[in-house]
Amino acid sequence: MAKRRKKGFVSEQQRKKVMTELKSRRTRPVRREYRRDHSDYVPLIITYPENHTIKMPTSSPTFSITKLDKALDDIFKKKKR
Amino acid sequence: MTSYTGEYDENIFINCPDEEDYEPLFKAILFAVTANEFIPVCAKSKKGGAIRVTKICELITKCKYGIHDISKTEPDKDNNLPRFNMPFELGLFYGCQKYGNDKNKDFIVFDREEHRYEKFLSDIKGLDVEAHNDEPMDALRGVNSWLSVIRMDAGKPRINPKRILDDYEEYVEDFSDTAKIIEIDINNLEPIDYHIIAGHWIEKQKKQLEEKSLEIVKT
User: Fold this and answer.
1) In angstroms, rounded to a whole number, what is the distance separating the alpha carbons of residues B52 and B18?
2) Cα Rg for chain A, rounded, in angstroms?
3) Which residues of B touch A54 (CB under 8 A)?
4) At residue B181, what are phi and psi to the nearest 5 degrees?
5) Chain B contact for A66, CB < 8 A?
6) Secondary structure tally for chain A: helices H, strands E
């Protein structure tokens, strides 16, 4: 009479078969048609929400706002270059 | 001690140390406030001769929100005594929330490390106390996430935190150049000046981001 195996245990032959199958799955190449084409994707620029408004006083106790505005314009122009 | 204020629910009372080494944290907190479309209201101004506590109470009643930093607990260099102004002003704000007309007044408290305040101000245990670790970016993150919730409660979209964090780094780089060009002494700026500079900087940045987005769409 064949020896009964404990539930959950497999023979060495079965184990080898499963391992070979798993190994072959790992090396199987990814099918090309499933790869996404990103060529028409537009990179996203995170901006501030619409209607974003900062309330500010129109004058400063320490400096001229016109001068600040011009200074920032120059700094941003430089960065753009 | 004149202060520029907006509507009650736009104003944030800023209760922070008035010291030179606190300037980077102060700048970060104010940047987060400005970027989230709020107005910082400070009693930090060096001008004016009104009785300080009276003026502080007036400012607190004008503000729905408050940011309190109780991290400076070290004794003063000149007289070797700690300063109690920040915990006192926090108490005034809390009292105003508790006994005033607006029970929905909201505030955030900062300390240097988590749970450190329990050793010197244990009465406030259970309040919203955040640790900024003396790092401007941590303070910025803390203020921004608190204000994001307030914005969403008011039905306004939250500003992407990455936008604010990236912008702050760029703003700090530009700040010293701006200060040089407009000939200001960084150590003698009024709190409202930070709001004006940050506000104008963000406006320019927004414009540039919009231009960039348009360019990308065109190409």
Assistant:
1) 14
2) 34
3) 34-35, 37, 199, 202-203
4) -65, -45
5) no
6) 2, 0
For residue B160, give the DSSP letter.
P
User: Alpha-carbon distance A59 to A36, whole Å?
Assistant: 54
B191 CA to centre of own chain: 9
pLDDT over 80 (residue B46): no
Residue bearing the bigger pLDDT, A5 or B83: B83
Nearest to A63 among B34, B184, B205 (CB): B184
- CA nearest to B15, candidates B126, B75, B94: B94
Residue that wins the pLDDT comparison between B47 and B65: B65
**What sign does the dihedral B151-B155-B161-B167 (CA atoms) show?**
negative
**Alpha-carbon span B174 to B180, nearest angstrom:** 10
In tens, the pLDDT along B5-29 reads 889 999 999 999 988 889 999 999 9
The average confidence (pLDDT) of chain B is 91
Q: Give the tens place of pLDDT for each residue, A32-52.
A: 655 666 666 666 788 899 899
Tell me the residues of chain B between 119 and 178 that have a Cβ less than 8 Å away from chain A: 156-157, 159-160, 162-163, 174, 177-178
Beta-bridge mates of residue B111: B131
| Beta pairing, strands B106-111 & B11-15 | unpaired
